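Recall the central idea of this unit: under ordinary conditions, the amino acid sequence of a chain determines the structure it adopts. In this exercise we apply that idea directly, starting from the sequence alone.
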Amino acid sequence: MNCRRLICTFFKNIEVFEFKLMYFVYIGQGPQVMMGYLDNPKATSDCLDDNGWLRTGDLAYYDEDGYFYITDRLKELIKVRGFPVAPAELEALLLSNEHVEDVAVIGVPNQESGEAIQAHIVLKKNGALNITQRMIQGWVEKRVAPYKRIKGGVEFRSSIPKSASGKILRRLLRDEVDKRGK
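Accordingly, the structure predicted from this sequence is:
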């Protein structure tokens, strides 16, 4: 059995983003995977499809060699004018900038587009003190589709909030933005 076929049974096609097929990740079916949440049919139906497959909430794609890549979480997607934007994609791009040490990208409410992309950036200590929001936005603008531009602003920080395992705590960043907005 070839690897692509075996792995494909766990994925369901959802949409085409920039010439890469994106997939929801589903895992197996049956009671060995998950029977459901005790006394909570709503939570059970939210994570199991009609055929009993477990929705993980991960997004993935595969390349021409059949290798699969988990790229992001469905819940973390930013919707800009109806287009889904994966924070991890923009974070990887921003980390390739010579002045960026660490970064987190979140969606912030926007009347025109539903959500706008906002970047929280830790600059490297190598003389990047004169870097401005506009410079970062312009740098990104040259490298992404128009709906992926950082129109929600850039915030320079001393650190990005992360869990003990190193996962970005986007919820804390969104909470900070919400507090400032009120």
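Residues 1-11, 13-20 have pLDDT under 50 and may be disordered.
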